Amino acid sequence: DMAGKTPEEKLTADAVVDTLRSDIGTGILMKIFHAKDDAAKEEAKKSGEEKLPQYLAGLEKLVKGDKTFLASGLSWADLALFNLATDFLKMGGYSVPPEYPKLCAIIDNVGALPKIQAWIAKRPESTF
């Protein structure tokens, strides 16, 4: 089950995805992507540089599995992190630095899955 096997795991997966979508996606990246001008974009990027490490540190603490957020294995939270890290963070000029080894391990683990690799190889070229 990609949502988690226990109520606690489901809560953790939901919290991770909410943080990725709302706090990082909307709270940081969308402010950069929708900035009115270069000055606003730079201000949003500077703000993101201050906030992103806080969110990543919090997410790092939630990792309970071996290269997955959940002890029970792969979840939608892992896929969401991979998507954010490999697409949207790069577009915003960010990355997940090695100071967050558990998050980096999740990203590498998801990226090594054969079905993920096959999709990336054949997906259409897109900015998003």
The ordered string of helix (H) and strand (E) elements is HHHHH
The total beta strand count reads: 0
DSSP summary: helix tally:
5
What is the rounded Rg?
A: 15 Å
Largest sheet: none
General form:
globular
Which whole number gives the mean pLDDT?
Answer: 94
Beta strand %: under 5%
Task: Name the structural class.
Answer: mainly alpha
**What's the N-to-C terminus distance?**
27 Å
Q: Uncertain spans, ≥5 residues at pLDDT below 50? A: none
Indicate the percent of residues in helices.
55-70%
Describe this structure in words.
With 128 residues, the chain is mostly helical. It contains five helices and no strands. The chain is globular. The two termini are 27 Å apart.
Descriptive key words:
single chain, globular
Summarize the structure.
By secondary structure, the chain is mainly alpha-helical. It is 69% helix and 0% strand. The chain has 5 helices and no strands.
